[in-house]
Design goal:
Layout (H helix, E strand, L loop, with lengths): L1 E8 L4 H16 L4 E8 L5 E8 L2 H8 L2 H4 L1 H4 L7 E6 L7
Antiparallel strand pairs: 1-3, 1-4, 2-3
């Protein structure tokens, strides 16, 4: 499994960021290979993101080519390009 952390500063009001996330939920639910996504509000002002768990590097690579992935920054009014970190999951606390 692959873990992905996405972080960005938004120029939108908090309520609008949450609305965008809720509107996009069905598209993420339909994304092949996406095991879980946690929507995050960081303690830095106006900073949001997501923590995603992917079945494989191939699933993540395929997602990156989708319109959903390519519109993350614009949909959330990101001030700069989102910061993305990727890691391999080597063990889990719970199954």
């Amino acid at each position: 499994m692959i873990a992905q952390l996405v972080r960005f500063k938004s120029g939108l009001p908090r309520a609008e960021v949450i609305g965008v996330a809720e509107d996009r939920l069905p598209m993420y639910r339909a994304t092949p290979g996406l095991v879980q996504k946690y929507y995050l509000e960081f303690r830095d002002q106006d900073t949001y993101g997501g923590f995603l768990i992917w079945e494989s590097a191939e699933a993540l690579a395929a997602f990156r080519e989708t319109e959903l992935a390519k519109t993350i920054a614009s949909a959330y009014g990101a001030v700069d390009m989102p910061e993305v970190s990727i890691g391999d999951v080597f063990t889990m606390l719970r199954d």
